[in-house]
Amino acid sequence: MKYPIHFIINLFIIACIVSCKKEGVKPTELIVENKDVIQPKATIITGTSDDPKAFKHLNFLYLQVPKKELKLENFKVPNHLDSIYFKTEDLLESQYIEILAFGNKKVYQLPIFITPGDSIHINIKNEALAVVGTHKSHYQFYKDIDLNEYPLFSNDLLQYKNSCWEIFQKRERLLEDFILKNPDISQDFIEKTRSRIQFEYYSRILRLTIDKSGRAIALDANHFEQVSHQYGIETSLKFSESYFGNLSFELLNDPKVVKTKNYLGILRSYVHLNQNLTDSYAPSQFLIEKNIFLNEFSNKAQEGGLANTILTYIQVSPFRNSNNIKEAIKEFKVLFPNSNYIIKIDELAENIELLNKLPPKEVLEEKLLTIKGDTISFNDMLIQTDKKIRVIDFWASWCGPCITDIKIGGKNKALFAKDYLLDWVYISIDTDVVKWQQKAVELKKYGTLKNQYLLLDPINSALKEKFELNTIPRYVIIDKNGYLVNDKAPKPTEYNSFISALNDIKNH
User: Using CA atoms, how far apart are residues 130 and 54, in angstroms rounded to an integer?
Assistant: First the structure.
């Protein structure tokens, strides 16, 4: 294989870096006349692969550099699909990243710990991924750990939590053994790996994993009630008191953990559940949570926690909390005028003003295909389900998460329909009519043959454009008067959050 001259030069530079390291010179550190000038350290990632598809779909997840640097074209070596070269001077502190590549036969995934100035080489060969470089030991810890060994939740919270605890303890023991066998690893690696293992565990017990793809549902009061029914009230009380273990406001306010994977989700969920397991999303609850972040947290924890609380309440309960949300946004902008969250907050806040109105004319006039092969307008579909709340489930036959939600949410949907007088409407964005019909029939026991429709023109759909269907499943709620009341509703599998969204409409 012949490589372009600039690629050979880059490899030569890397070889020199490694050589310099052996001679005691820090890799990629520049020697300058002015001792007060600190030059940034370049972090270099190269790679080769015998799986031609792997580098076509490559990601470095959580790498804290500007997003524009992470465009795939920045990794490519011209005319060599089996090679990558990436250089950045914007990595300012050590961190975990996750290599994720989708090959011909398998998905390659490996978390590695990198440090500014590292020179790393990724090699994919014979369906195995290996990483070598400046700090070889830093890249090896997760090499032989099964990333999917945490259990799946099957409606037994006690059993699930105990299994998660066993995996957590196992990983802690593996880390201690690794430290003994690799005395060259840094203290920074040890501290951040301990935090990562800890937060992996907290993430699993706050977000209950329901399938091998990693999809999860939020912990809520129902899960503790199930423990009470299965194991008795006394067991349930002791279990709920000890459930969160050492998780605390003090730990979550530690600046050392704020960049740990899953940190913000854990922070948001813990503050909410620590105050109210019933997950009501009432205005009083919003104020409690807002004040916790203002009074108990600081810096990044306060910024991220407060922003995510505002965003969550906009999604789940925009009507009841409208005034509180607007006031909290004002406070947030005073506290964090340069926050990256402001754009997203303003975008969703604008949506509140668009709700409680009829959908636009072009949406109402859009044609849908029925499961029997007839056509009907979106407006006529609403008329057929008049005087009921309509929950529209946007899905597709090829969408695994959509099908999982349909199956798992089946029982909940029956309860919602009974208690809130609502109808479920399924609108597929499939482009293959036969596959759509076949999958709808296959899922018929979950109610998919009633109110089942297909976008007649999914490419130029006003519905698709209006509701910004960039990802599915997606849930939209229309009230009994035909007004759009929630265009980004929680998943029906998130029982209490979805109940809160329905109560928000009922009480508005």
Answer: 13
What local confidence, expressed as pLDDT, does residue 455 receive?
92
pLDDT in tens, 294-322: 999 999 999 999 999 999 988 888 878 88
CA gap 304, 263 in Å, rounded: 10
Helix H or strand E encompassing 125: strand 119-125
| Ramachandran assignment for 454, one of left (phi > 0), alpha (psi -120 to 50 degrees), beta (any other) | beta
Burial, 149: exposed, middle or buried (Cβ in 10 Å; 0-12, 13-18, 19+)?
A: exposed
CA 458 to centroid of chain Cα atoms: 26
Q: Could you tell me if 406 and 441 are in contact, meaning their C-beta atoms sit under 8 angstroms apart? A: no
Distance between CA atoms of residues 399 and 432, nearest Å: 13
Length of the chain equals 508
User: d(Cα 271, Cα 291) in Å, to the nearest integer?
Assistant: 11
Contact 496, 220 (CB under 8 A): yes
- Residue ranges in the chain modelled with pLDDT below 50: 1-35, 37
Q: Is-contact 18 12, C-beta < 8 A?
A: no
Looking at the DSSP assignment, which residues form a beta bridge with residue 41? none
**Angle between helix 342-354 and helix 322-335 axes, rounded to 10 deg:** 160
Question: Three-state DSSP class for 121?
Answer: strand
Instruction: Let me know if 152 is exposed, middle or buried by CB neighbors in 10 A (0-12, 13-18, 19+).
Output: middle
In contact, 92 and 116? CB cutoff 8 Å: yes
Residue 426 main-chain phi, psi, to 5 deg: -105, 125
Q: What is the CA radius of gyration of the chain?
A: 26
pLDDT at 112: 96
Report d(CA 124, CA 105) in Å as an integer. 12
Tokens 């977000």 belong to residue: 207
Burial level of 80, CB count in 10 A (0-12/13-18/19+)?
middle
Q: In 182-255, where does DSSP find H-type helix?
A: 187-206, 221-231, 233-242, 249-252
For the segment 57-105, what is each residue's pLDDT rounded down to a tens digit? 888 999 999 888 888 788 888 888 889 999 999 999 999 999 999 888 8
Q: Which 3 state secondary structure label does DSSP give 306?
A: helix
Cβ-based neighbour number of residue 482 at 10 Å: 16
> What span, in angstroms and rounded, lies between the C-alpha atoms of 55 and 130?
14
pLDDT for residue 17: 41
Print the SS3 string covering 356-390. CECCCHHHHCCEEEECCCCEEEHHHHHHHCCCCEE
